[in-house]
Amino acid sequence: MPPNLRLLTTALATVLLFLLPPHSAANHPQFREAPAFRNGNSCPPPDDNSTIVHIAMTLDYSSPYLRGSIAAVFSVLQHSTCPENAVFHFLANPHHHPHLRKTITSTFPYLRFHLYTFNPATVNHLISSSIRRALDQPLNYARIYLADLLPAAVTRIIYLDSDLIVVDDIAKLWKINLNSHVLGAPEYCHANFSHYFTAKFWSNPVFSVTFTDRTPCYFNTGVMVIDLIKWRKQRLTQKLEYWMRIQKRYRIYELGSLPPFLLVFAGNVEGVEHRWNQHGLGGDNLEGLCRDLHPGPVSLLHWSGKGKPWLRLDAKRACTLDSLWAPYDLFRHESLFSDS
């Protein structure tokens, strides 16, 4: 290389070192700090365990879903009457814990949270391929192991997906009466339940007999209230794993982690108002086309399906309802040249 060209290359590299963000900032998502939400005057003290609202979510530092998780947490806090009484239980790959802890504490310095290890090896051998690769990620199955991962002192949990926002007080959902049921969720009995399983499943009485004496309805597993005491007592993790093993051998469904829940719980779910899961806003699992809200009031908007609001907004192809998600997006878009 000629001396003059070598000098020019060195000078350009030096300039870029100053212009580009540090390695850690360039490779890790950055979020703005959220406001500090405080309890109202009518709230019980946050150290009263009987008034805590326990919320479980997964955190995936290696995918854009982290951006959705941050927005979901922000929405819960913003609409809570007693935000300091909310305790978050995050499940994540152990390799991501240091980065996740730093991200959560810098974005929500006041948040009460616990970070739990979910080892992908726990479930990798049980996962079968589905119609969309994103549905095959181990963290999608972490909800099956909540009762095992959370301490025994946590007896009830609200599980929330990462592609939703809450626009109502989460304590209202927390307080629903599960009666004799282990799980509560909005049910959609008008959906064609047979579509969630293959013809091989329905033609084999050894499999289909599982719905005998039950009237099964579809429910979405992205929003669930769970009695962890009953779950542990009934060994429901093992029952879900049983159906995943059946799937490995016989291919009785196509849709990720949802069908095992339907096989174990459908027809035995405490129905919750539909307002708590206005789901399907991400369209179907193949095209992710825009959709409208279902009729009725809204407490939670859920972009289940292929289309995620942060991806459509960034691509300048947003659907109308994506504008409702945008105010909760704390992702920091850094420009190459800073004017600060």
Automatic annotation (TrEMBL):
Lineage of source species: Eukaryota, Viridiplantae, Streptophyta, Embryophyta, Tracheophyta
Membrane association type: Single-pass type II membrane protein
Protein's cellular compartments: Endomembrane system
Pathway(s) of this molecule: Glycan metabolism; pectin biosynthesis
Main location per the UniProt record: membrane
InterPro entries to which the protein is assigned, alphabetical: Glyco_trans_8 (IPR002495), Glycosyltrans_8_dom-fam (IPR050748), Nucleotide-diphossugar_trans (IPR029044)
GO cellular component terms, A-Z: Golgi apparatus
Similarity comment: family membership: Belongs to the glycosyltransferase 8 family.
GO molecular function, one term: glycosyltransferase activity
Segment forming the signal sequence: 1-26
Protein name: Hexosyltransferase
Origin: domain of life: Eukaryota
The entry's keywords: Glycoprotein, Glycosyltransferase, Membrane, Signal, Signal-anchor, Transferase, Transmembrane, Transmembrane helix
EC number: 2.4.1.-
